[in-house]
Structures are given as structure tokens and as C-alpha cells.
Write a structure and sequence with these properties.
Length: 102
């Protein structure tokens, strides 16, 4: 029951990511495990070009900077003695925008 619902939530997040962003990309920035308290901490980033920007192709100019949005966060996974994750906690999320000239 637990793993199926977790994968279903991840699949729905992936679908939402593709709905809001063109070519969403996920990166793992760092990962550390702490055996003393049974946690794994993952720092991650999701980036992409907003779909609304892609759909406005008539406004596109080659000299115009490209807007890329990214979200950074830290996930803490709590692992029990049997080696299974029993809690996934999202500690913080930061949203950034940058503009790149292609």
C-alpha cells in the first residue's frame, strides 16, 4: 500500500511538471546519509521553461533572453531499522528565475 501510493504521487507530480514546464529537469545536488538518526538528506533542483512562455511563440525573438525557472528543496527520508523509508519530509523550497540569452 505505501509504495504504490508514493509512486502514484510521484507520477502525478511528474505529470504536473510537464503541464507547467517545457522539458522539466530534475537534478540531485547533494546527498548525505546519517546512520545515527536514520535519515538520508537529499538536496535537489527542478528546472524548466514555463509552458506559457513556450506557447507565446509569436513573441519570440532570437535576441530575447530565455526565462528559466527553478525550484530548489531539501528532502529528508527517515529510514527504519528494516531499511524501508517510512517518512519523506520536504523541508524547504526556494523558487528562482533567471534569464539566459541563447
Amino acid at each position: 500500500r505505501g509504495i504504490q501510493s508514493y509512486w502514484l504521487q510521484l507520477a502525478s507530480l511528474k505529470s504536473l511538471g510537464r503541464l507547467y514546464y517545457s522539458k522539466p529537469r530534475m537534478e540531485i545536488l547533494s546527498m548525505s546519509s546519517h546512520i545515527e538518526n536514520g535519515t538520508v538528506i537529499v538536496r535537489w533542483r527542478v528546472s524548466g521553461i514555463p509552458q506559457l512562455r513556450v506557447l507565446q511563440f509569436w513573441k519570440f525573438r532570437s535576441k530575447e533572453p530565455l526565462e528559466i525557472v527553478w525550484h530548489e528543496g531539501i528532502s529528508t527520508f527517515y529510514v527504519k531499522d528494516d531499511g524501508l523509508i517510512h517518512l519523506h519530509k520536504l523541508d524547504r523550497v526556494c523558487i528562482y528565475k533567471t534569464y539566459f540569452t541563447v
